[in-house]
Amino acid sequence: MPDISTNTDWLRQEFNVTKAKARGEYGEMFYIKDDVEYVDNIGNRASDGLQLIVRQDLIDGMVPVAEVDTARLDLSYGTFRASMKLTTIPGTCAAFFWYFNDTQEIDMEFLSKDFDHSKKAYPVNLVLQSRAAAAHGYDASQTDNFMQANLPFDPTADFHEYRIDYSPSEILFYADRVLLAKMNGSNVPSPNSHGHLILSHWSNGNPKWSGGPPKEEAPLVIRYIKAYFNSTDPKRAQDWDGRCKNAKAETSVCKIPVVTRENQTAKDWFFSDYSDMSKNQTVYEITSGARTLEAMSRWIMIVVGLLMIGLVGGF
């Protein structure tokens, strides 16, 4: 895709957040710098992907930051997976999350200032934003819906798959198929919550969270996003009810390939590259510039990015 602005599956965000609302030392300026792809001129795939860049120079008291959101707002229960390479530069927060509103939000957040290579300490903050968190000024660490886990690898050295499984009874968090944490209870978002996915990379100078701003440009690189989910859209639910007469039939469900240390081929495997994986499969295109979106029964996969050519063009 030569121009990422033609992708209608994902929306690049452009807005400002004041210092007061950001609850930091500085405001945040979500802005778009470039629209084009980047291809490493020596064929180095290590940097391939969509780059969300936090920049060091303030603009009108705000830190230049970046975010992309799914255009679709009908994401309910599902499994959401992102392959990312985190920045080595201290002073940013990289976030991969499902969002309905400020009290129904499922987060994986990575603070680059907390990475300690000498101790092999690479924490990830796992968060359910809830009404309890709102009562504490949206500080989920003061509730039962906050956990910090240590990643079993250096997240800045290579791409790794981060995953959120959202079901009616619990939330599961994974990194490269390793279960990091479980959360359940009344704060699990309701089935009527029609959310969307967000990937953001930001800093506001808050020493208790993002720190920063970074002393130099700090890129978060995203190789792919795969999302399989139940849709809250009534028309999609009606279509599924009419199409899937026997959910227990052998051909009704397709197994989702899982990336493992022994099997890395699954990271380059997408349902949208194949047809007739299931008799219930629906394939449709909503953009001329992006990959197709594809439905497996009521489960949908969204794919962003090209694996051989990165969508960089610093946001």
TrEMBL record:
Coiled-coil positions: none
MF terms in GO: hydrolase activity, hydrolyzing O-glycosyl compounds
Highest taxon, organism lineage: Eukaryota
Keyword vocabulary terms for this entry: Membrane, Transmembrane, Transmembrane helix
PROSITE patterns: GH16_2
Domain GH16: 1-233
CDD domains for the chain: Glyco_hydrolase_16
Pfam families registered for this protein in UniProt: Glyco_hydro_16
Membrane-spanning segments: 296-314
Gene3D superfamilies: 2.60.120.200
Keyword Heme annotated: no
Biological process, per Gene Ontology: carbohydrate metabolic process
This protein's name: GH16 domain-containing protein
Upper taxonomic lineage: Eukaryota, Fungi, Dikarya, Ascomycota, Pezizomycotina
